[in-house]
Amino acid sequence: MSGVSYSIFVRKNCGGGDYSNYIEVTAGTSPSNLSTYPYSEDLEADANQALLLNFGLSFAGTGAWSYTVDDLLDGDTTNDYAYDGLASMFSNNTSTAEDADAWVYVGPFNLASDSQYTFSFFQRVLAAAGLSRPNKDLEIAVSSTNDGLGNTVLLTLDDLVNIDYVERSVTFTPGTTGEFYFGIHDKSSFLATATAGNALFVDGFSVTSEALSIAEFESNRFTHFYNKNAQTLNLESSNMEMTSIEVYSLLGQRVISNSLSNTTESIDVSALNTGVYLAKINIDGNSKTIKFIKN
């Protein structure tokens, strides 16, 4: 089965009727359904997931990324780092002698040349930077391999100081259909005067797709925002009427399905639980997928 781990118990036949004690070995597989969109991964492990490859994650570079699970029962909220749920990933701390070099890849994804893809995730840093604590720098890239080579950098973000989560997104249209990885690279410069480390946290990966369309659709400006007080998702399309909206939870459950008919719409989401959702809006036979947080 794809995307799961197995516990295998082995022992050695030592001869003469003697056997060693059983040793537990964990083996697993990567997910195989990375061609269905929207895709999302919240890093929360199922009971049969004990390996990072079960999430479709792989690593490269001289540095390291680690998996952490918050303890909500210890009475200390300062060591809780997940964006949503309990689990998140964090990069190695920046040293006083050398730059960071840690890649985490998500995929591979089957991407078609006639579609545009958006890779998104949520990011924060451990603490505010200063004379004794370094900033964090990252790159977001796409690559046909997950070995740290051949990356096409789509976005560079330097001197990150946000201790609250911010969503980061890039778009990519492949020149040819094939398998691609999306990568996040901690490339932070070292700080010679550092006496405290800093770390880069990421959580809530997603990939959405939309078919390349006619020039009219491409020129149409689409905006959205969530009104927390009114608990509405507000949509605006500059010159083309929206025809429908479907809202999905990160588990893939459709929670809202409405017909639309205007260039400006307000969707009541008060009945939804707090969390992250994906909304697919249809506009004149084309679609736009967005992510929003209900809080």
Structure summarized in a few sentences:
This protein has one helix and 22 strands. By secondary structure, it is an all-beta fold. The strands form six sheets. Strands 5, 7, 8, 10, 13 and 15 form a six-stranded antiparallel beta sheet that branches. A five-stranded antiparallel beta sheet has the order 6-9-14-11-12, with no helix packed on it. A four-stranded antiparallel beta sheet has the order 19-18-21-22, with no helix packed on it.
Sheet/helix structural class = mainly beta
CATH class of the largest domain: Mainly Beta
Radius of gyration: 22 Å
The level of helicity is under 10%
Number of domains: 2
Please count the helical segments: 1
CATH superfamily of the largest domain: Galactose-binding domain-like
Helix-strand topology string: EEEEEEEEEEEEEEEHEEEEEEE
Let me know the number of strands. 22
Main sheet record:
6 strands, antiparallel
Looking at the structure, the CATH topology of the largest domain is Jelly Rolls
Q: Mean pLDDT across all residues, rounded?
A: 87
